[in-house]
Write a structure and sequence with these properties.
Oligomer: single chain
CATH class of the largest domain: Mainly Alpha
Radius of gyration: 41 Å
Number of helices: 5
CATH architecture of the largest domain: Orthogonal Bundle
Helix content: over 70%
Shape: rod-shaped
CATH topology of the largest domain: Helix Hairpins
Strand order of the largest sheet: 2-1-4-3
Largest sheet: 4 strands, mixed
Length: about 240
């Protein structure tokens, strides 16, 4: 028979509370890497947006350069055609040459008009790029600060967890060996909860009524009692 039942139950209740607090810290710490990875993922998205905008600017610039080269080539063709006008012998050939020059000039004009629109696109794309680069810079600073806070908080929680584990070991050392074995067995099958308070003949874990005779026996605190419903160790607790 367990000696000092009331004292042992108080120790078990204290131990359980410590272990629950430790479990919550462990669960919180298990999410640290996920939080850091999520922030890194957000930063990658912002960086990708900048690279996309930068690539768009470069594509438009290349289009402008290509048009610029074509205008230069057409201008060279026009100059050559105009230079050979004086060597043409027949009127038919002369008119054909003039038509070709006019066609080249119209083509050049269309390209030059498109180049003006391209310049406007370059200006707009560069503005968008600058905005995204500034936003990325801000996000890098903010995310770095968030990661720093998360890491610092995690460090504090690890220290707290270590203290709780040490305290749990100290408290567990005060529990009678057989009772401690029972406690661990019930905890394993009870979702981490092995001890339940009983208030007004109601188990505060499974919320089922304790039969009157069993409740009266529980109040005597002369031996360890088990909830007939959830099979957890129970102890009486008076309402405040």
């Amino acid at each position: 028979m367990v000696q000092n039942v009331k004292e042992q139950l108080e120790i078990l209740a204290d131990l359980q509370q410590i272990e629950i607090s430790a479990a919550r810290l462990e669960e919180s710490l298990s999410k640290v890497d996920q939080k850091l990875a999520r922030l890194d993922g957000e930063l990658v998205q912002f960086s990708d947006a900048v690279e996309t905008a930068r690539a768009e600017v470069e594509d438009i610039r290349q289009k402008y350069k290509a048009d610029e080269e074509e205008v230069r080539s057409i201008s060279d063709q026009i100059a050559k055609n105009e230079a050979r006008l004086g060597t043409i012998k027949t009127n038919k050939e002369y008119q054909a040459a003039l038509k070709e020059i006019d066609d080249l000039k119209r083509k050049r004009s269309r390209i030059e008009e498109a180049m003006i629109e391209t310049l406007e696109k370059i200006e707009a794309a560069e503005k968008t790029l600058a905005e995204k680069e500034e936003f990325l810079k801000q996000q890098e600073a903010e995310i770095e600060e968030q990661k720093k806070d998360i890491i610092e908080a995690a460090s504090g929680k690890r220290d707290e967890l270590e203290k709780l584990k040490q305290k749990a070991a100290e408290v567990a050392g005060k529990v009678e060996p057989r009772l401690y074995q029972t406690y661990n067995r019930i905890k394993q099958h009870g979702g981490g909860v092995a001890v339940a308070a009983v208030e007004n003949a109601v188990c505060q874990v499974c919320h089922m009524n304790i039969p009157p005779q069993a409740f009266n026996e529980l109040l005597r605190l002369d031996e360890i009692k088990i909830c007939p419903n959830c099979q957890r160790i129970i102890y009486p607790r008076q309402n405040a």
